[in-house]
Structure formats: structure tokens, C-alpha cells
Structure to design on (200 residues):
DNA sequence: TGTTGGATCAACT
DNA sequence: GTTGATCCAACAC
């Protein structure tokens, strides 16, 4: 199935991270796996910008883990955390400057039934499957295998399908103890799929 | 070689 | 509000 929309090009990702992050709200992530197609609209993100940002993985320099963050914008940065979860980031800005946007919440658009099968059994049908960075990666089946993918390619990419501009809320980033004064979390205030709106 | 704690989530009290 | 699950990168030694 072909989804109607304009694929985001390299230029989109090369802009300043604090411009790209809120601009990602309402855009659609498409994951074309050989056996399945998944798509979801972004409703919550966080920006991590450069070695001067104490909360950014690049705060203490380049390592094997954060290597793709140092590359050109428009690539995926996936890492494993807390022994159980993965987090998906979109690398931004020019080659050599480490920055990325963490995807924290999405509204399922295509393949919700497939996503549900990747989740633990016994949840009620209206259980939110993608409100939170770990839950999003689990619903999409994203792991470190997808680290470093070119998001202008055909496997994993983003499109603008003309969604209405969301009403954007701003807050400090979640789950970090450093740089809590920086309000670099952006979310669609009308979406149920923003993390923290627990519905079970 | 060993230790520690994290951009999480859900199930407790 | 607190804790368990469970891995591995980063850093200390």
C-alpha cells in the first residue's frame, strides 16, 4: 500500500535541532519491513543538542554508541536502555555536530493490529501501545539493528501527509536529571498518545 | 576486570 | 512514592 504524502528530504533534517523537533509533530513515520508496513503520526519529541547539552549522549564526546549522532542529519540513532527498552532518535544538523530528536509518542496510523502483536498479551484493546519512547520502539519492532539507517531511503522514512498543524505544548525533558531548565520537549497537547497520560 | 547507572515501564505499597 | 526487570556502555581501577 502506498501512503499519500511527501517524503521528507535531507534538507529537512539539516536545519537547527530546535527547529526540526517541533516541526516533526504531525509528520508520519513509515517503516516498510519486508513482511509488514507500519506508519504512525508523531505527537511527542525531545531535542538533544550538541556536546554542550549535559543531557545529550554526546556530552562527554564521541563514542561507538553515539557515533551516528555525529554524522549528517537524516539518519536513525537507536540505543538500548534499562536492560529492556530501545529509544529511537532522528539525527539532525550537519556532519560533525552531534544532535538528535528523540521520538517519545506516536499515534498508530497503519498496522495497529501488527503493532499489538509485538506487545505483551493480556492488555485491553484500548490500551495505548505507543505513548512513550520504549513503547513506540516495541510496537514498531525497532532495535539496534535499525541504528544508522538513512531516513531518506525506502525502509524507514518520514512523510508529510498534510496533517493539521498541532497545538504545541513545551516542557522540560522527561527522565533526566541534568539541564532540567531547558524546555526541549514538544508535544501535541490534544493527543492521547503523549507519554504520561496513562490509560489502562 | 569490575562496578554503576541510565533519554523506561508497569506493578506494587 | 518506590521498586523490579535486565542489558550494556562508560568509566574506574
Amino acid at each position: 500500500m502506498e501512503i499519500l504524502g511527501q517524503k521528507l528530504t535531507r534538507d529537512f533534517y539539516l536545519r537547527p535541532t530546535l527547529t526540526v523537533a517541533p516541526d516533526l509533530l504531525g509528520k508520519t513515520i513509515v517503516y516498510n519491513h519486508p513482511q509488514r508496513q507500519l506508519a504512525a503520526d508523531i505527537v511527542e519529541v525531545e531535542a538533544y543538542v550538541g556536546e554542550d547539552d549535559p543531557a545529550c549522549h554526546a556530552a562527554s564526546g564521541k563514542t561507538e554508541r553515539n557515533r551516528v549522532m555525529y554524522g549528517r542529519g537524516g539518519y536513525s540513532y537507536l540505543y538500548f536502555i534499562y536492560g529492556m527498552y530501545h529509544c529511537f532518535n532522528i539525527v539532525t544538523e550537519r556532519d560533525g555536530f552531534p544532535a538528535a530528536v528523540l521520538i517519545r509518542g506516536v499515534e498508530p496510523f497503519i498496522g495497529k493490529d501488527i503493532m499489538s502483536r509485538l506487545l505483551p498479551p493480556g492488555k485491553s484493546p484500548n490500551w495505548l501501545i505507543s505513548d512513550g519512547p520504549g513503547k513506540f520502539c516495541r510496537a514498531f519492532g525497532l532495535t539496534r539493528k535499525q541504528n544508522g539507517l538513512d531516513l531518506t531511503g525506502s525502509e524507514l522514512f518520514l512523510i508529510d501527509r498534510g496533517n493539521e498543524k498541532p497545538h504545541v505544548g513545551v516542557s522540560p525533558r522527561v527522565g533526566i536529571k541534568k539541564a532540567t531548565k531547558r524546555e526541549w520537549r514538544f508535544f501535541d497537547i490534544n493527543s492521547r498518545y503523549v507519554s504520561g497520560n496513562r490509560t489502562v
Observations:
- Chain A has a mean pLDDT of 93.
- The CA atoms of residues 151 and 157 of chain A lie 4 Å apart.
- The beta strands of chain A are 6-7, 28-33, 36-49, 76-81, 85-91, 99-110, 156-160, 168-171, 185-188.
